[in-house]
Structures are given as structure tokens and as C-alpha cells.
Design brief:
Layout lengths: L17 E4 L3 H12 L4 E5 L9 H13 L6 H7 E5 H4 L8 E4 L5 H11 L8 E4 L6 H6 L9 E6 L8 E6 L5 H14 L3 E4 L8 H19 L3 H8 L10 H8 L1 H14 L13 H8 L16
Parallel strand pairs: 1-2, 1-4, 2-3, 4-5, 5-6, 7-8
Antiparallel strand pairs: 6-7
Helix pairs in contact: 1-2, 8-11
Bound molecules: nicotinamide-adenine-dinucleotide.
The site of nicotinamide-adenine-dinucleotide (NAD) has 26 residues, from helix 1, helix 5 and strand 6.
């Protein structure tokens, strides 16, 4: 394909208010981190069944106290995160200068959500995806031309409060000024360290990290090692107290991890390591049984 010229940025204002779309493992914690850094947040999720239509996002805010004790006490935290749903509160998106999409790692679902929210996006707002490794080019192609310069990837690592790294990934038409402005915000506003990555499957961190996780899972199975043993070896003994292979998988979410693996399977067909990108059988079996990791109360460990 011929190279696409990056577009010129529309006039960009200061980031004062943030919307996070998706109140799951990452969305809720990104929202908490932003509030702790002094930015009010609108936290959106799908409407729950029944009367309380913002229940999903509200539950996520309550869950933050357990998941990620923050400097702000929960009532204070909750005051600055508004749990909303798309069908009743979409127009409020207009208030936000930065919209961080953090819904499930499926290209078609993200595209569908963008179609829903675009009419409510402010004329100067930035739209950024927290995708773990989907193609920014593909996501960008689903957006109207005037939005593409204001769209990019902003990939936080889990848990976002403690992990300093954020990958900033341009789409083919992202305005360079937008990346500069977002980098300044992430560093000065949220205290992060930014690495600019290219739009390749799973970018940098997950291309390396997920490959390591897959290899460890397959080898553990082959050699009959227990999850504890592998976690001791790949966690504490490597100086990573909380991040052994299987515990990390549970914290990430096994469905999300499987989606991230699929990005490598589908996106790198000619890679010499491609045969090693197959979903490890032990992971596939847990998924078949509905064990999605910590968020579901069952994964490699019962109570991760
Ligand atoms: P999650 O499964 O915990 O939450 C996903 C959220 O998306 C849920 O709240 C769900 O209600 C919502 N959702 C699902 N389908 C939807 C749809 N069709 N429309 C609107 N909302 C929908 O997922 P997560 O782990 O928070 O991951 C979210 C994003 O962040 C993904 O792109 C993932 O790859 C990325 N990410 C995850 C991690 C991690 O460790 N889990 C780390 C970095 C980036």
C-alpha cells in the first residue's frame, strides 16, 4: 500500500476531563488512576439488565477498593468517577477532551462502539484505544476521515496504577501533534513513562511478554510442572514478585489473553515462530469451562 500521509491536527485543547469506555479489568483501573491524578472521569459500560442501567460501571467503581486501593478513599474516588451507560448518557461524552476506549479485545466490537459514540464526541476530543495489540490501521479505517487524525493507541499495562509503561501507537493518519500532546499528558499528568511503538501485532510489550507466557505454559505442561513451581521460577526468582506466568494470566483475564494470542496467530502468518503462537491447550480448556481468571473467580488458580 502507498504510505499514508499523517494528517494535520485539528486545534487541540487541554485535557481536563476524561471518558473511559469499558469498566472491566483495565477500564475501571485506568479511571481510578486518572482520578487519583486529578482528572474527573466518566466511566461508561453496557447497560445492565433490569432497572439500574449504570450497574456495571457502578459495580466496577465499588470493586476498585478491593482491586486497587487508591490514595483517595473509595467515597472520594467514587465522587470523581461517574458510572454511566451509553444509551442514557451518551451525550455527556461531549464534556470530555480525551476518550479512552477499553472494551473487550475484539476489532468488530470496538468498531461497532466507535460508530455508536462518534456523534457525541467533542469536535476537539482525542479518541484513544487501550487495545493490547489490534491493528490501529484497521481500527482507524473504520473511522470517518476527520476523526482519524485524532485517533491513536494508548496501551496501559496491568495494573495501570503501578506499571509505569504506556505504549503510544499511531494509526496511519494520526496527527504527530496529537502524539506529542498525549505523551506530555501521560508523563506530566499521569506520571507514566511512554514508549512510542509501531502499529505491529501486539506492539512491543505483548509481542515479547505474551510469547513468553505461551512458551512457559506449553513447557510446563510438557514437563509436568505445577503452576506454583512455574510462578516461583518466572516470578519471584526472576525478581518479579507478583508476576509469575500463571498468576499474571489470571490477572490479565484468560479471554483477553487468548484474544492477544490470536492477534499474533492471525497477524504474523510468516513469522518463523508462528507454530508456537497456537493457543496452549491448558488455556483453551479453561476457556471452554468458562474460567476467565481473577475477574471470574476461577482461572489457573481458583481464587487468583
Ligand atoms: P474485560 O473483559 O475486563 O472488560 C471488557 C469490558 O468491555 C467489559 O466491561 C464489557 O462490559 C465491555 N464490553 C464487552 N463487549 C462490549 C461491546 N460489544 N461494546 C461495549 N462494551 C463491551 O477486559 P479488559 O481486560 O479490561 O480489556 C479491555 C481492553 O484493554 C482490551 O482491549 C484489552 O486487550 C486491553 N488491555 C487489557 C489488559 C489486561 O491485563 N487485562 C492490559 C492492557 C490492555
Amino acid at each position: 500500500n502507498p504510505p499514508v500521509e499523517p494528517a494535520v491536527a485539528p486545534s487541540l485543547g487541554r485535557i481536563r476531563k476524561i471518558a473511559v469506555l469499558g469498566a472491566g479489568v483495565m477500564g475501571a483501573q485506568i479511571a481510578a488512576h486518572c482520578v487519583n491524578a486529578g482528572f474527573p472521569v466518566l466511566l461508561y459500560d453496557l447497560p445492565a439488565q433490569g432497572a439500574d442501567r449504570s450497574a456495571v460501571a457502578r459495580k466496577a467503581v465499588t470493586g476498585l477498593a478491593r482491586l486497587n486501593p487508591a490514595p483517595l478513599a473509595l467515597p472520594a474516588l467514587a465522587r470523581h468517577i461517574e458510572p454511566l451507560n451509553y444509551d442514557e448518557h451518551l451525550d455527556r461524552l461531549h464534556e470530555c477532551d480525551l476518550v479512552i476506549e477499553a472494551i473487550a479485545e475484539r476489532l468488530d466490537w470496538k468498531e461497532q462502539l466507535y460508530r455508536l459514540i462518534l456523534p457525541a464526541l467533542g469536535p476537539r476530543a482525542t479518541l484513544a484505544s487501550n487495545t493490547s495489540g489490534l491493528s490501529l490501521g484497521a481500527l482507524s479505517a473504520s473511522l470517518p476521515e476527520d476523526i482519524q487524525p485524532r485517533f491513536c493507541g494508548v496501551h496501559f499495562f496491568n495494573p495501570p496504577r503501578y506499571m509505569p509503561l504506556v505504549e503510544l501507537i499511531p494509526g496511519p493518519r494520526t496527527a504527530p501533534e496529537l502524539l506529542d500532546r498525549l505523551e506530555t499528558f501521560l508523563v506530566a499528568g499521569l506520571g507514566k513513562r511512554v514508549v512510542r511503538a509501531k502499529d505491529t501485532p501486539n506492539f512491543i510489550g505483548n509481542r515479547i511478554g505474551v510469547f513468553g507466557i505461551m512458551a512457559a505454559m506449553v513447557e510446563a505442561d510438557r514437563h509436568g510442572l505445577t503452576y506454583d513451581m512455574v510462578d516461583e521460577l518466572t516470578g519471584k526468582r526472576l525478581g518479579r514478585a507478583k508476576s509469575g506466568t500463571f498468576r499474571t494470566a489470571d490477572v490479565v483475564g484468560l479471554d483477553t489473553l487468548a484474544h492477544v494470542m490470536r492477534t499474533m496467530q492471525d497477524g504474523l502468518p510468516d513469522d518463523p515462530f508462528h507454530p508456537a503462537f497456537a493457543t496452549p491447550p491448558v488455556l483453551a480448556e479453561l476457556l471452554r469451562n468458562g474460567a476467565l481468571g481473577q475477574k471470574a473467580g476461577a482461572g489457573f488458580y481458583r481464587k487468583a
